[in-house]
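Lab notebook, bench 4. The sequencing result for the construct came back, and we need a structural model before the next group meeting so we can plan mutations. Quick request posted to the team channel:

Model the 3D structure of this chain.
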Amino acid sequence: MGKVEKKPVKEKIILGLDPGTNVMGYGILAIQGSRMLMIQYGVINMGKYGDHALKLKKIFERVLALVDEYKPDEVALEAPFFGKNVQSMLKLGRAQGVAMSAALYREIPITEYAPKKVKQSVTGNGNASKEQVARMLMQIFSIKEQPKLLDATDALAVAVCHHYQNGALKIKASSWSSFLKDNPERVKKTVLP
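Done. Here's the predicted structure in token form:
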């Protein structure tokens, strides 16, 4: 009998962004087959820059630097589509546009997700709090300490949402046992008293 060769698992890198004018979160995932590995997450803090135009320039430069360093295959952004304060939404829209421009400058495809979609994908509840999203991600990726700024975990959640939306977690009810067997790192063991 001939030897069966395994096909190499293609790796994909996803950059998730949670745009903001003072703090922008970013999260980077490596996808290897059905495995999801966190590479990096954090924030870009622009609070020290007073001028809005300078903040936008810094957003462009920092997102471009992340793209150049990690070479993502895809970028996913959280994009609120409505808000109560028109001025805040205008500034946020500019920040989103600049972040998108940085990725498009390197010809990286972009997908936008509404905040409820991101929360639903990660926690199962579209109305989950930022803290609930952070706790779920801490379990998924074995993160020991919650970050001070939840913009970092919000961005990581956007990357996870994008991965899930691309068919990574399409499970039929009858296949839970195979899912659990193939993804032991996704199951948290709880000991009841």
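Residues 86-105 form the longest helix (20 residues).
Will bring this to the meeting.
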